Amino acid sequence: MNNYLHDIPTKIYFGKGAIENLPTALSPFGKNVLLAYGGGSIKRSGLYDEVMAILKREGCKVSELAGIEPNPRVTSVEKGVELCIANSVDVILAVGGGSTIDCAKAIACGVYWKGMGIWEMCSHKHGLMKALPLVDILTLSATGSEFDGGAVISNLATNEKIGNSYTYPYASICDPTYTFTVSKYQTAAGSADIMSHIFEGYFSRTMDCDLSDGIAETILKSTMKNCMIALKEPDNYAARANLMVNSSIACSGIPEYGKTRSGWICHGLEHELSAYYDITHGTGLAILTPRWMRHVLNKDHSVLDRFLKFANNVMGIEGNDMETAFKAIDALEDYFRSTGLPMTLSELGIGEEHFVDMVNHVEKRLDNQFVPLDKEDAIAIYKACL
Q: Measured between alpha carbons, how far is 142 from 38 in angstroms, rounded to an integer?
């Protein structure tokens, strides 16, 4: 087990009615609020009215940034920064899923950015930054952005989608009932995203981290179980609550305690798909993950023990040979398909016309991986997804 440092400064208010803590969460920062949200689902669900009533009761002045995209764009970050500066905003309140929270994180830092432009801030690697305080109300179990300091921002003009460090939310309000109206497709895609966050750390060369592996395996099994329940019973509180907890922990760093970092290559490959085709992040991850698994297992048989651990402890497939490992990968792909997700790029209308450019963008990440890859490997994984 390796040494590690971990610090999560975010307060989590979890459970039905947790929004009653919103005034407490906002009160340290002032009354001038930027309310950031997405495409209108919070208005259809009634959450927008609920939030506005609380803000009005607390005497807050509210500026609004609506229409944040599912893959948040730098143009939305720029609009948010302009609003914050023009209205002397004290605190940002993001209401939505990971995309809204990601955008709000970049806005919070962009207010203080002194560089050449907001995209320079997004595209050049840096650590946590000076930022406006951020509070969020979570409405989708997927990215874990409610409990980490990172964000992913897209630039459609350059076909780039880049993850970076920004700021942690001061507080996250996580009420599972706010996910009851999430569609079947987004429930399935969000669950695939949760699982991918686990896979990226679980497939590590460090084999003696019992706690980390146990947490990871439990989250994988819980997510598969509760996703299926939520697809059949959208308002099943226990299923939605477990998915929400899994979302927060999966990307928090906790399931990677003591592990050698794996490089998160499936996320790197998927970000290219989203940058070029603006597809749903979790769907891209579900398509890529089994193909990546088969490729690296065929390329390097020394990782068999880790795949057998996955087969035995997560997928419930007994055995100790290559056949067992490949059966587990097949079972994972079958699971994703059973949730209703498309499982080929062809189903999304994606061909191989941009594969070389996509791999060129991600080339720097290929070597520092669970199984080191080259450009030919990456193209082969993309082609296997067709």
A: 15
How many other β-carbons are positioned within 10 Å of the β-carbon of residue 50? 16
Three-class DSSP category at 175: coil
| pLDDT on residue 210 | 97
| CA 10 – CA 253 distance, rounded (Å) | 13
In this prediction, residue 232 carries a pLDDT of 98
Instruction: Report d(CA 233, CA 227) in Å as an integer.
Output: 10
The distance from CA 28 to its chain's CA centroid, rounded to whole angstroms, is: 28
List the alpha helices (DSSP H) in the chain: 22-26, 41-45, 47-57, 74-86, 98-110, 118-123, 184-202, 210-232, 237-250, 265-277, 281-299, 304-313, 322-338, 355-362, 375-384
CA distance 256 to 204: 9
Kindly give the pairing relationship between strand 32-37 and strand 61-65: parallel
- Can you give the pTM of this predicted structure? 0.96
Whether the CB-CB separation of 294 and 384 falls below 8 Å is answered with yes
Query: Splitting the chain (386 residues) into consecutive groups of 10 residues, what average pLDDT does each group show?
Result: 94 98 97 95 95 98 97 97 98 98 98 95 95 98 97 95 97 98 97 98 95 98 98 98 98 95 92 96 98 98 98 98 98 98 97 96 90 96 98
Residue 386 CB burial class (10 angstroms; 0-12, 13-18, ≥19): middle
Full DSSP string of 77-117 = HHHHHHHHHHTT-SEEEEEESHHHHHHHHHHHHHTT--SS-
How far is residue 13's CA from residue 326's CA, in Å, rounded to a whole number?
41
CA 26 to CA 28: how far, in whole Å? 6
- Which residue's structure tokens are 């003696």? 208
